[in-house]
Amino acid sequence: MSVDSFKYLPKSFRPMFEDVDIEVEGAVWAPFEKPLSEATIAVLSSAGIFLKDSQQGFDMEREKREPTWGDPSWRAIPRDVGQDRIDAAHLHINTEHVKRDVGVALPLRALAALEADGVIGRLAAENYSVMGYQENGCAVWQSQTGPEIVNRLRHEAVDALILAPA
Fold this sequence. Notes:
Blueprint: H1 14-18, E1 40-45, E2 49-51, H2 60-65, E3 74-78, E4 86-88, H3 96-100, H4 108-116, E5 122-123, E6 126-130, H5 139-155, E7 160-164
Parallel strand pairs: 1-5, 1-6, 1-7
Antiparallel strand pairs: 2-4, 3-6
């Protein structure tokens, strides 16, 4: 099944979003000096994953009405979540794969295995999911979403965050 990432955009908008150049000032990475075998690792997926029994899904209806808007909220996903509790809401990816195996977008089992083998120190108790498609400029992400996630990562003493783009 193919997914048309621009399905809900007016046809005249497609050229504005298909070839977007992003300019970044300064380094986009930081040196990692702690031994991986002692580090606490968390994962952030942009696949729109949520817990169907206790969290609201991402707002795809508003995005259908307002094609240049993306839900800027986030969800905490526990490290030991069962596949039966997982759902995904995202207009720009095929979520069926995530619904069958969350590991394709949020590799918690793989990281837990690395923890068991001593490759990483610890997989964080909480990991995170967002809906990756966002409005131009990401104002809410910069002022709210990002700082909220960072505060939670700091509270749990996470040393590294793996970004898992969908």
